[in-house]
TrEMBL record, chain A:
This is Small ribosomal subunit protein mS29. GO terms for cellular component: mitochondrial small ribosomal subunit. InterPro entries: Ribosomal_mS29, Ribosomal_mS29_fun. It comes from the Eukaryota. Keywords: Mitochondrion, Ribonucleoprotein, Ribosomal protein, Transit peptide.
TrEMBL record, chain B:
This is Ribosomal protein S13. The keyword Ribosomal protein applies. GO terms for molecular function: RNA binding; structural constituent of ribosome. It comes from Rhypophila decipiens. GO terms for biological process: translation.
Length: 487, 119
């Protein structure tokens, strides 16, 4: 037996079928169409509604071709039109760069997360004291802005889950901050590489160092992604008069100067220049504010000159100059041959790029900061090009630090790079691993207080997450407990 | 719009791809031109300095590209025909030159093998 309605229309019976089923319904206003159907109410928009038969519009002509069944249903020709010229307009395509901006956005607050009560705000002393290990502390607002300016937050980190950005103090944090403190007291340069397995918190430790530097009124220069400098995706040009030829990256350096200026405005506004800089595009007399010097960088072409002058001022041996933190994330990318080519079509070594050369000169100890400071690099293990010399150097430094025999080079391997060995010959290495159960507990309590972890934080739960996270690897624990939630 | 050798390019076009639009200028040559002028491979036309654009135009105007390169190909074919060679004859007949079968599949030869070859 055939059904009065076609299968497609079962969810919304036709007016005829409705009338047959409910004979007592009397429509308030009745309009009869050519087919004699009653259309009392319809959710179809006027644009998509079937036009009357014989109308002059294209849709009307098409309607005339559609075969109608005796009961008024359309069996053929009724198809969903996706795309094409018919139907409504297409949604607007995103503007150039819009998708990337969305992908790279940094969200530091989540209004749906619970505010954590009794969360102390970090100050300059918190990260120096052993007794604060395994505590979670929130970042002060002023420092958040500064950190954002130097691009210390990364899109892959889980800041967007919590109400406010907060940090876990680890023993490694206290160790690093004390080393930084000592470097200022002894007017020495701390040259350090943070290394560790994937997701162990190397970039976060670097962020803690940046935080401490901002809190202690240091001058902070940060290169958030070293690969941006060596992957041949930013402008470059040879610096005239350099032998061997060095290359400046004008556009990147202009951006860097602007970030330095904005993030360190408070410190820089107190300083004045000590040298005349005749090479600059605009005249900056001696003892004018350093901010004016930083402001001289307006065009990419003059950016490197201004940066050199700025660095000369900041790193000069003058009393009252604040310590400097020069940080870089993704060390492997600058310990290899870059993707840039010179005019002779030869690949350029990363250490011939002027900004990287400056960093490696200080990392190797060839140059030092007279007022103290730190040169800190963090490795990245997820995005990590092969650099045999760097790996070997890291192992050698660690062995030496632990009083062991450093491993030797492989005798027949040709992939070593003497310039990388030179850059790494005396840097300290801080290798970080998973956190302890005490720190895990503290972190999980913070998650629970934020409303993100809906289990009782007891010894069993802590042990479970600690073990799921590969013996306390922070990122893995986050994956196991926060990122698997069905939000 | 940025003009190189009399051709307008959109500002968002990659310089490398823009160079490769010229006849007889391929990926290898464009790579070398970029390196010679210190332009990074991902540079867009809009980011070029005016003096670089002028230098590129000057560079391209000394190269054998576009009509000069087409002329060279045509001359080669013409030389073959004037010598009365088999290859020259086959070019004149729009047929395959190197002994391929002609029963089927000679669209490419029909399209390309001409005395006045276009491209």
């Amino acid at each position: 037996m055939s059904v009065p309605n076609c299968m497609r229309c079962l969810t919304r019976p036709s007016a005829v079928a409705t009338a047959a089923l409910r004979p007592f319904t009397v429509p308030v206003s009745v309009s009869l169409t050519a087919a004699g159907r009653v259309a009392a109410f319809s959710t179809t928009p006027a644009q998509q509604a079937t036009p009357q038969k014989g109308s002059k519009t294209p849709a009307g002509r098409m309607d005339a071709r559609i075969k109608r069944m005796a009961n008024g249903h359309v069996r053929v020709g009724k198809r969903l039109h996706v795309g094409g010229k018919k139907g409504g307009t297409r949604p607007k395509a995103p503007l150039p760069g819009e998708r990337k901006a969305y992908r790279k956005r940094i969200q530091l607050s989540n209004s749906n997360a619970l505010p954590v009560k009794d969360l102390a705000e970090l100050d300059g002393e918190h990260m120096l004291s052993e007794k604060n290990v395994a505590k979670v502390l929130s970042l002060p607002t002023a420092v958040i802005d500064q950190l954002r300016t130097v691009e210390a937050f990364k899109p892959t980190q889980t800041w967007g889950l919590f109400r406010d950005p907060s940090l876990l103090i680890r023993p490694e944090t206290v160790d690093l901050m004390n080393r930084m403190q000592d470097s200022v007291a002894n007017k020495q340069t701390l040259r350090l590489v943070i290394d560790g397995d994937k997701l162990t918190g190397k970039s976060i430790l670097l962020l803690q160092a940046l935080t401490q530097a901002f809190l202690k009124d240091w001058i902070v220069i940060n290169i958030p992604e070293a690969q941006e400098l060596t992957a041949a995706c930013t402008e470059y040009a040879p610096i005239p008069g350099t032998e061997p030829v060095q290359y400046m990256q004008q556009v990147y350096i202009l951006k860097l100067i602007q970030a330095i200026r904005k993030a360190n405005e408070k410190v820089l506004s107190r300083l004045t220049t000590a040298y005349a800089h005749p090479e600059l595009p605009q005249h900056i007399p001696v003892s004018s504010p350093i901010l004016a010097l930083a402001n001289a960088a307006k065009e990419p072409d003059s950016a490197w000159t201004v940066f050199s002058a700025l660095w000369k001022e900041l790193s000069s041996n003058i009393r009252g100059r604040p310590p400097i933190l020069f940080a870089l994330d993704g060390l492997h990318h600058i310990m290899k041959i870059s993707k840039y080519r010179n005019a002779a079509f030869d690949l350029i070594h990363s250490h011939d790029l002027a900004l990287i050369k400056l960093f490696t000169d200080y990392l190797s100890g060839q140059a030092s900061l007279p007022n103290g400071g730190a040169i800190i690099a963090a490795t990245s293990r997820n995005n990590c090009p092969v650099s045999a010399s760097l790996e070997l150097a890291l192992e050698q430094r660690l062995a030496t630090q632990n009083g062991e025999e450093p491993p030797a080079k492989k005798p027949y391997f040709k992939g070593y790079d003497s310039r990388v060995e030179g850059a790494m010959k005396s840097a300290q290495v801080l290798r970080i691993k998973g956190v302890s159960k005490l720190e895990t507990r503290s972190l999980m309590e913070y998650w629970a207080a934020s409303g993100l972890l809906r289990t009782t934080v007891d010894e069993v739960a802590v042990s479970e997450k600690w073990m799921l996270g590969g013996n306390g690897v922070l990122g893995e624990m986050e994956r196991a407990s926060l990122l698997t939630m069905r939000l | 719009m940025v003009q190189i050798l009399g051709v307008n390019f959109h500002e968002l076009k990659l310089v490398k791809k823009a160079l490769e639009t010229f006849y007889a200028l391929g990926p290898r040559t464009s790579e070398r031109i970029l390196a010679k002028h210190y332009i990074h491979p991902r540079a867009k036309m809009g980011s070029l300095a005016p003096k670089t654009v002028t230098a590129l135009t000057a560079e391209l105007s000394t190269m054998k590209i576009e009509n000069d390169a087409r002329k060279e190909v045509q001359d080669n074919i013409k030389r073959l025909r004037d010598m009365g060679t088999y290859r020259g004859k086959r070019h004149g007949q729009n047929l395959p030159v190197r002994g391929q079968r002609t029963r089927t599949q000679i669209w490419t030869a029909r399209k390309l093998n001409k005395i006045e070859r276009r491209g």
